[in-house]
Amino acid sequence: MPIIIKDFTWTQSESKISINLPLKGTKANNVDILNSREYVKVSYPPFLFECWFYEMIDDDSSVIVVKNGIISLQFSKAEDSVWPSLFHKDFENKELLKLVREEAIKYAGQKAERLTKEKNDLKEANKKLALKEQMKLEESERNRIESLKENERKKATQEIESFKKSHKTVQVEKEQVPYLEKVKNDSTAVKTMEENRKEIFEESNLKSDEKNISDLPGPRSSGSIQIRFTPRVFPTPSRESQDQLEREWLEKQTEARKISELPDDLNDLSPNELNLDLLKEKASNYFKQENYQVAIGVYNHAIRLFPKEPSLYSNRAACHFKVRNLIKCVEDCTRALDLLTPPVADNASSRLKAHVRRGTSFCELELYAEGLLDFEAALKIDPDNSDLKEDIENIRKTILGQQPEDQNENIYIN
Description:
Strands 1-6-5-4 form a four-stranded mixed β-sheet, covered by helices on one side. Helix 7 packs antiparallel against helix 8. The chain contains ten helices and eight strands. By secondary structure, it is of the alpha+beta class.
């Protein structure tokens, strides 16, 4: 049962009425107020205040303030007069009071709908006004750009016309050369040509008499030129900008394939058990036979011998993925990528596989953001790979909460 507030105070003038209620320690945001022209209800559990006014009020001009532990209600009277009492003269008529309360609730709902509609209409009007202003600005900017284009077009046309006029003037001046001058030049040219021809023949005859045929050099002897190309490990042409990186990669590869010092428990191994290529082939055969645990064991042995060989970590990651050791797959791919530096054309394929394996493992662990980064890194290495583009699109759909298409797992083995 709510506690009815009785220790309130009220004052009035001919046009206004004020009611003050004690907040009684209740938070201001817990106060709920409903009012109409004949009724006001203030609820802040467990307290309740209801008042059926003596006469009607103007509820549109009501002011409600909650401050300093007081709820202050200020209303304007519908008609100026002094009330003999705050409450309705039929305050004891329960049926009447109930009816007034129901009408007040109905009126408050209709008023709320009306205010919401007015607010929405105002918001829509503001949107239309803003749209019109935006359209005016765009139209003004479009006209300004068209004006600039037109000015530039006129300027270009004037320059072309000016150029045509000047060119025509020069052409006319050339055509006005006297005809006699032209004939004179032609005759001079013919005379000069005949004199030159005569001198050439005379000089040729003179030289032919003076030269001795026996002094002429003999024909050249035949031969061949040997061309040798510098041997190159990388499939791409040599570039000066990549020379330092390629040299560093080859040195790392050479170092990775050396066994510097065997552990004490591996001193009695046979040559085949110390051969990197044979170990990789053996592990690869186990992988193809789906005997992944044995393949992992072979790679573990090979890594103890060649801890700086990146392909061992990358291939062991593929085995871990098959047996769902996703965390270990991520760790091995990370170690392989650390060793696959600097990035050169010779290790591009290995870096691509490591990124795809690690990205797939991240997605299986539902770490889609990390997986997306790896697939994007793989796409930078092979920009024309349609499968990678499709996988990236599916991961993005998953991150956005959309249903991706079925993905095929691509686990490579060197």
